[in-house]
Amino acid sequence: MFYYPFSPINPAYLLTQQLKENTLILDFKYGDVTGDGVFDIVYLIGEKNFGEESSFIENIRLVIIDGATYFVEMISFESDGGYNPRLFLGDFTGNKVDDILISIFSGGSGGMSWYYIFSYLNNKVKKLFDYEVYNNEYKYQVNYQDNYKVEVISENLMKKYIIDIQDKGEEYLSKLYDENGKLKEPIQGYVNPLSGLYPIDYNGDRVYELFTLRRVIGLYNADSLGVVQTSLQWKERDFQPWFEYLAVYGSDIKEKRI
Hints:
Number of domains: 2
Oligomer: single chain
Number of helices: 3
Number of strands: 16
Shape: elongated
Protein name: Repeat domain-containing protein
Structural class: mainly beta
Distance between the termini: 56 Å
CATH architecture of the largest domain: Beta Barrel
Order of helices and strands: HEEEEEEEEHEEEHEEEEE
């Protein structure tokens, strides 16, 4: 059972009195992140230059107000600038205490985003997920092959996927293949860093897993060949892959088929 402690002081008002004039409360959530059975208040704050039309936010920080003591904890992280920053509270580890997911869109042409998950159990800050660590740890190979195929290898999971690119068009394919479908020279693509990460309770047990998206890139960033979809599940000390798929884009059909 959770309860809200009574206080004549509004925590949001208390917080805003300590911030710079250009600092905004970007998002906030209620939940028990300390594990004491009392709802805490979690804020995402950041700074914006009000003289500019851009919606870019910088110096984004996490602020936790302990619901029982009103102790304020401010947490910084490395990638602290971007667009549309938001919070999600949920149990990712199975200890029945809310963890804190932070999502920030980079705004770049690659469609990448920054993601962090923090635990604040017993008022101790612990980082459970860092998008940069994940991007660097999980590696892929993207190799063009003869006969208009692209091989994607997931090195960590030791999985291989094949993408058929015959529908890419003659102009695209003629630059890469001869008239017999043989590659003119070796060509590699790549897999982009995270562009999406979503909390999903697959098992309906109120413990959330992570659903991640990474684009498979061919010759250039706008040349998307597919999307690696990996689901992560907490295992003792970190998130581990649970299952992984490669989704491919469909091509248009000129006539309706029955």
